[in-house]
Amino acid sequence: MSEVKKVLIIGGVAAGPKAACHLKRVKPGWEVTVVDQDSLISYGGCGIPYYVCGDVSDESELRSTSFHMIRDEKFFADAKGVTVLTRTRALSINREEKKVLVENLDTGEQSELPYDKLMLATGARPVVLPVPGTDLDGVFTISDLHKAIEIKKRIARGMVEKAVVIGGGAIGVEMAEALTDLWGVQTSLVEFMPQLLPRIVDWEFAAMLKTHLEEKEVAVYTGEGATELIGNGDGHVVAVKTPERTLEADLVIMAAGVRPRSELAREAGLAVAPWGGIVVNRRLQTTDPDIYAAGDCIATTNLITGKETYAPLGSLANREGRIVGDNMAGIPSTFDGVVGSFIMKAFDRCIAATGLTYEAALAEGFEADYALTAPSDRAHFFPGEAIVVYQMVFDKRTRKVLGLQGFGMMNDSISARIDTAAALISKGATIEDFITVEMAYAPPFSAAVDSINAAAFVADNICAGRLRKVSMRRFLAWMEDFSREPDWAALDIRHPLEATPFVEKFGAERWVAVPYAEVRKRYHEIPDDKTLIILCDAGTRSFEVQVFLDHLGKTNTMVLSGGFNVIRRIGVDWIPQQ
């Protein structure tokens, strides 16, 4: 019989329980104890917005197994053989004696728990804004299930008519949807940065998301930070103040991000990054080989840049927990890092990304460019076909793909492409790898030329110099003020019914209309004295026309990648009413 080891795990939400249960499967005779300061453990924190909006009807579903057993102390003891001590806070780690000082929060009693192996799964805490009024009643962070239960209780009792969500990251957007969709709460979303989902997606995708939220009656204010939370005489929040406006509110949700809980590690003398993440190696060991760490409290590696990064996701925490369990048991296992994958729903839309954005790639020193495409999400002839927008970011020098972003209808089409891209990018894939990757095909699921292959074709054309494009941002700036580029004109190759209203609004000098199928016969009508921005719905026909005009020596053209499929989704006020 092998020697019995005592394993102590601090943290009982995601990484900790996963490590404990996996360890008991490979070392059933070992003593495994989990301590957590909360009374509710092992729940799906990422499901909180869906509980608030009603998609998940009861909070117990977030704590249940797939076979409908509540993951509480009794479940872990009876079904898993794991001892769980809730309402128990870890106070300090004595690394020399291998003991952890803990306190029972109900009795105040302190005791020491010995360990042979220790795991820190202390998670993260929400950022509380350094502004007046954060302690008012009605102000919440999304830090645990208790807060979510209270928020839903207040809404269900009719106590909330107006709400303000501070923070336009994923949680903020999800909470804005949750409050608006089922409950009809008048909701405002405030984001300090110039766009939603900052550093996660590029501005075109953030703009499409903002437009959709506004269509669903969420008021979105970007480039504004909350400066004060205003209360009434009873200590309840009544408004949020920004430099631009005052927004009435019965409920305020601060979703301004999270920071690692790493105090225990730092006080024990373990290495901690300056920003707070616990430093671990590929086996998820800390600088003490008998102490491991995983989940939202650790620093990890970005596989694209090779730099330290932070990735607080439940999916990663579960993967990391299993790896800790393996290594504690003597089974070599590594966690190499992340590429940074993200997906969320927003009402009827899905937005997702993996890897680096274009702006991030430039900031990291890559010779970055991007291919913006707007294909169909399935065969164009199949019922229910819809437009999806993708942006592939790549390095022109090495041809390595650095990232992929997607925006479209709420279905599985984007998820399949983002997941494929994440796997390829993690292995250093190039544009050629994306061109040749094999995707399952049937008309209900994709076009015959898959969207991910098509984006790589465009990237290849850009690298080869066959495609010259103008950025969406520069084009939109020109449309707002033609004096920016007085020698530019649009060449609209769409159907006359689509193009004619633009000619009538902007004039034939500014807006030239020649249908795609007639360009080869009417090319002499296309002016030579202007730089022409070729416009179609997606950009594919525009590229064909650019190649043909290049053949004729008319090289004064640029393609608007993504075309009107992107313009319509961004939302502009200059499209003629038809």
UniProtKB/TrEMBL annotation:
It holds the Pfam family Pyr_redox_2. One of its GO terms (molecular function) is oxidoreductase activity. Keywords: FAD, Flavoprotein, Oxidoreductase, Redox-active center. The keyword Nucleotidyltransferase does not apply. Residues 514-576 form the Rhodanese domain. InterPro entries: FAD-bd_OxRdtase (IPR050260), FAD/NAD-bd_sf (IPR036188), FAD/NAD-binding_dom (IPR023753), FAD/NAD-linked_Rdtase_dimer_sf (IPR016156), Pyr_nucl-diS_OxRdtase_dimer (IPR004099), Rhodanese-like_dom (IPR001763), Rhodanese-like_dom_sf (IPR036873). The keyword Oxidoreductase applies. This is Pyridine nucleotide-disulfide oxidoreductase. It comes from Desulfolithobacter dissulfuricans.
